[in-house]
Write a structure and sequence with these properties.
By secondary structure, the protein is α+β, with helices and mostly antiparallel strands. It is built from 27 helices and 51 strands.
Length: 1002
């Protein structure tokens, strides 16, 4: 995997590879003279180091892979006893320690950043880049004097206030004057450098660019001037006499005292001058003037991120977006096993360490600024620069300076945010609203999970008139009651909409992003159904990061809950099962969605048309961590999106006020006119209201008058009985046979007279009727033990595509579930699965019908009759059908409460009296194969007529009956007041069974 591209988004100051020691401002720095020459064809450096160190104190010299030829003090040779690349010496103080050495640093075509910020040193014909252990390094802040001899034609750069150059006998010598203590030294040289010079406020600005990129130099110099002026106004005079922008042939991105080192691929990116260049220049103060005391934590990356990258976005009015992204990255990359305190961050080693040391630390400085105020914060920055220049500074030093300038104790703040890992996790309750005279009182609870933080929460109240009011409320307990006195009725209350607090994001704020896939702690790769070789590089990359692979058939609900899934192929059965399938036309795409069954986890669906498309694009996705969708063709990204999420924590109101535009109220005929052009018209119902069914019939009639290509989809009938419905509509069987053949009374049960007019009309006009529902045994089983419990034969009956990702629908289902008796003993996930299975099955039935009827392809219409719960907000059947075929639709609901977006039209029909089927008022059971009476309700006409418990009904009006359905069918053709002859068989003790006739008045 190619990690060097990470520098596209982040330039860092270079931390020399030396041990860190505390420094006294009064202690004279060690003098270090380094003379080097190069054998470029053999990638060799030859050097002599002269170190004047204080007497008596052990000198630790890091030699790495260098070959030490000689060590001496004055004329006295010292035996070089090197262990694990470390040489320990005790200087006499009289003579300098002299170390003669050689080193070989071979490059190659594919030298990359192998350690998130450390590119190997290289000497070859491309140039010389030495940024690590290329000389004997010591663990002291030292004053370096570097002299380098190279073949003529080379231009060299190192830390320097002044560079002196001389040419002699085909050799060019560079002397670098840097009269300040430093933690280390670096060296760059190349044959093709062109040097361009300018100046700002007494500082010389240089650009060293290769010939093919020399036209960029002017732009870089102009931006450098702007940044230097910006930070001089903030922090004081730029600390050196010169600043250079140096293009490197290696993929580097370093900030080094007096210059920056940027790789070729980086300098060519147009946005670098507006982002990383300023970050790097600020490091000239923080990291390269005030050094980092790494033993006590690296504060410089967080402060530089805050005053550079963040500041630039703040100036554009997008500071809150930058801070939110910091928190998204933290959620994505940091988890229990890699979380560490800010004080333990020393440098970026991976995505999680960056999220802590750059991101969280930047948030700490933001909170600190808000806490002590802008003036005290600005004074503290300037004092840090003046008091700790050319010294190592720590978080403790920053705390002391902050306390001096603010006049307050901030020990609790640094302990809370720097010394301890983690961030607060808030749990916000809904708010209650009370009117108190002309004012209102809003009250809600702020809970803190796991660990309690001392917080000052910013919140915004938006009023109905469009005005806003801001508050800051303390929260320092595991549960804090917040009470607000308001001047008007609030429309909404939002906590931390500006992302001013370092905190864990609420689920509604957190988008599913590529970073969450990259940073997952536990990942399962779901293998494609075909062409595994196409994704070989993807599979190997994730397996190197600890992922395991499984076939789609091995994925169960429990696995979905415990892991982040990387699903390979848009047609992967797991993608179809979770999201109804994914459709893209890109050569390569990555789409990240929230895992429907695991809050906080995501599913990444990766699809490639060919192995070449995958190879060209996959390595680049690690630079696009903040996006939810990525689309590539031939390795080039052409589209990227991030899913929309809430801004801040929205405090819900327990009651919701809805306003209706009265002028928009219209009549049912107008509604029917407006929906007549829709391909699918959904008409909801309360199952037991005649008025709802009367309206459904009018919709069907109105649409049929305009378009004879119409079908009726009915929730009331199940798919295995479609043939029976077809025969009834065609006139091949009568109503009795249809009801018996569809098992209507067993599988639906509502009075058939409610639906009779619709079915009669369909039969008369030969309008197809679609049995929408799945066989009810299947969702019943799923509601009890989950979809994984289905047999292979049962799975053949369910849709391959199921979208489980509609969180609003789940929330409404949860409310329904919690109101069910016995819900505590049941599993909500299973209940949710069964409901979605129900909806998806009906949706597929509609789509299957349309695809099976070529005559309906262009302008055929379907009227869908179903319970309003399957249609409200479009979440049940409509959106799922639209996902399948993209056909436009309208939703009409009857007698429903007004809610925003609940439907396209709401109709409130007048009450209609309908004919109902009379009842014999007896509780029947046919479990023994015959309809037997088991009980009577109060006032039963059967009981009054003489029937008894245990009687088995044999016939009604001389028509034999064998099942309860037979009885219900016969009763359909009776009316109230009719006399009904009932023959029963009654058991008698000792005397045997006897048949008896009774007459009931219905």
């Amino acid at each position: 995997m190619i990690w060097y591209g990470f520098f596209i988004f982040l330039v860092v100051f270079f931390a020399p590879l030396t041990a860190q020691a505390a420094d006294s401002p009064t202690q004279a720095p060690t003098e270090y003279q380094l003379d080097v020459a190069f054998d470029v064809p053999n990638s060799k450096i030859m050097g002599t180091a002269r170190i004047n160190a204080p007497a008596g104190k052990e000198l630790v010299v890091r030699t790495g892979t260098l070959k030490i030829i000689e060590v001496r003090s004055g004329r006295h040779k010292i035996e070089a006893d090197i262990h694990d690349g470390i040489l320990k010496l005790v200087p006499s103080g009289e003579d300098a320690i002299v170390i003669v050495y050689e080193g070989v640093f071979k490059g190659g075509k594919n030298v990359t950043d192998t350690n998130y910020g450390v590119v190997p040193s290289v000497i070859d014909e491309q140039g010389i880049s030495l940024t690590g252990l290329w000389y004997p390094c010591i663990d002291e802040l030292s004053r370096y004097h570097l002299s380098a001899t190279l073949p003529e034609g080379f231009t060299a750069v190192s830390e320097a206030d002044e560079i002196r150059k001389s040419v002699d006998n085909g050799q060019v010598n560079f002397v670098f004057d840097f009269p300040h203590p430093a933690a280390g030294i670096n060296f760059l040289a190349a044959r093709e450098y062109g040097e361009i010079k300018s100046a700002v406020d007494g500082t010389d600005i240089y650009a060293y660019f290769f010939r093919e990129d020399r036209q960029l130099a002017g732009t870089y110099i102009d931006y450098a001037k702007k940044y230097i002026s910006l930070y001089e106004g903030m922090l004081g005079k730029y600390p050196y006499k010169r600043f250079s922008i140096v293009e490197n042939f290696l993929p580097s991105g370093y900030s080094i005292p007096t210059f920056t080192l940027l790789g070729r691929d980086i300098v060519r990116l147009p946005f670098i001058v507006e982002t990383s260049l300023g970050h790097e220049i600020l490091h000239q103060w923080f990291g390269n003037l005030v050094y980092v005391d790494y033993d006590k934590g690296n504060w410089a990356e967080g402060l530089t991120t805050y005053l550079a990258d963040h500041l630039y976005e703040e100036q554009k009015g997008r500071g809150w977006e930058y801070r939110k992204q910091i928190l998204i990255d933290y959620e994505s990359y940091v988890h229990e096993n890699n979380e560490l305190p800010v004080k333990d961050f020393t440098g970026r080693t991976d995505f999680s360490s960056k999220a802590i040391g750059y991101g969280k630390a930047a948030m700490v400085f933001h909170m600190l600024r808000r806490g002590i105020g802008d003036d005290a914060f600005d004074r503290s920055l300037r004092d840090l620069v003046q008091e700790k220049r050319f010294q190592r500074a720590s978080w403790d030093d920053i705390k002391s300076i902050v306390e001096k300038n603010s006049g307050k104790d901030w020990g609790w703040f640094f302990k809370q945010w720097i010394d301890n890992p983690g961030m607060p996790e808030l749990n916000i309750g809904a708010f209650d609203l009370k009117q108190k005279g002309a004012q209102y009182e809003a009250a809600f609870n702020v809970g803190q999970k796991s660990k309690v933080y001392r917080l000052e929460l910013p919140l915004t109240v938006s009023y109905l008139d469009g005005s806003e009011e801001r508050f800051t409320v303390p929260a320092d307990k595991d549960s804090t009651l917040v009470t607000l006195s308001l001047n008007g009725m609030p429309e909404k209350i939002v906590i931390d909409g500006g992302y001013d607090i370092a905190r864990r994001l609420d689920g509604k704020e957190l988008p599913p992003v590529v970073a969450a896939v990259i940073g997952a702690e536990k990942t399962v790769i779901v293998l494609p159904v075909r062409d595994t070789e196409t994704y070989r590089g993807v599979i190997e990359s994730f397996k190197e990061r600890g992922a395991v692979d499984k076939s789609p058939s091995e994925i169960r609900e429990t696995g979905m809950k415990s892991s982040t899934l990387v699903v390979l192929g848009n047609d992967n059965p797991v993608a179809e099962r979770l999201f109804g399938g994914i459709r893209t036309d890109a050569g390569f795409s990555v789409i990240v969605k929230n895992n429907p069954w695991a809050p906080g986890k995501v599913v990444g669906i990766i699809n490639g048309k060919t192995g070449k498309e995958v190879e060209d694009a996959f390595g680049k996705i690690f630079h696009y961590g903040k996006y939810s969708e990525l689309f590539f063709d031939k390795g080039m990204n052409y589209m990227k999106k991030t899913a929309e999420t809430d801004r801040g924590i929205n405090v819900d109101h327990k009651d919701h006020t809805v306003a209706v535009l009265v002028s928009a109220v219209t009549s049912p005929p107008e509604v029917l006119s407006r929906v007549s052009g829709k391909r699918i018209v959904y008409v909801g119902e309360y199952h037991d209201r005649f008025s709802n069914h009367a309206l459904q019939l009018e919709v069907i009639r109105a649409l049929y008058r305009k378009n004879k290509k119409i079908a009726i989809g009915m929730e009331m009938f199940q798919r295995p009985f479609q043939k029976v419905l077809d025969e009834y509509v065609a006139g091949a069987i009568d109503e009795r046979a249809m009801l018996k053949g569809t098992e209507y009374f067993k599988r639906w049960g509502f009075d058939y007279n409610l639906y009779r007019p619709v079915l009669t009309y369909a039969r008369e006009e030969k309008i197809p009727v679609i049995a929408l529902n799945i066989r009810n045994e299947i969702p019943d089983k799923v509601s009890k033990v989950g979809i994984d419990s289905l047999s292979e034969e049962e799975k053949k009956e369910i849709p391959a595509q199921m979208d489980l990702s509609d969180e609003d629908y789940k929330r409404r289902l949860r409310e329904i579930f919690q109101n069910h008796i016995g819900s505590k003993e049941k599993n909500f996930d299973f209940f949710c699965q069964s409901q979605i299975l129900w909806d998806e099955s009906m949706s597929q039935s509609i789509d299957d019908f349309l695809k099976s009827r070529p005559d309906f392809e262009k302008d055929g219409q379907v009227v869908v009759i179903a319970g309003s719960g399957h249609l409200s907000f479009g979440s049940g059947i409509p959106k799922r059908t639209f996902r399948r075929n993209g056909l436009d639709y309208a939703i009409l609901l009857n007698d429903i409460d007004i809610e925003k977006d609940i439907a396209d039209y709401l109709i409130y029909p007048e009450s209609v009296e309908g004919v109902t089927t009379p009842k014999i008022m007896a509780v029947l059971n046919d479990s023994q194969g015959k309809p037997a009476i088991t009980d009577f309700p109060e006032g039963s006409i059967s009981e009054k007529a003489g029937l008894k418990e245990g009687d088995v009904i044999l016939s009604i009006d001389d028509v034999p009956v064998k099942t309860i359905d037979d009885i219900r069918i016969e009763l359909l053709y009776k009316k109230k007041g009719d006399r009904l002859k009932v023959k029963v068989r009654r058991k008698r003790f000792l005397l045997g069974d006897t048949d008896k006739d009774f007459t009931l008045v219905l």
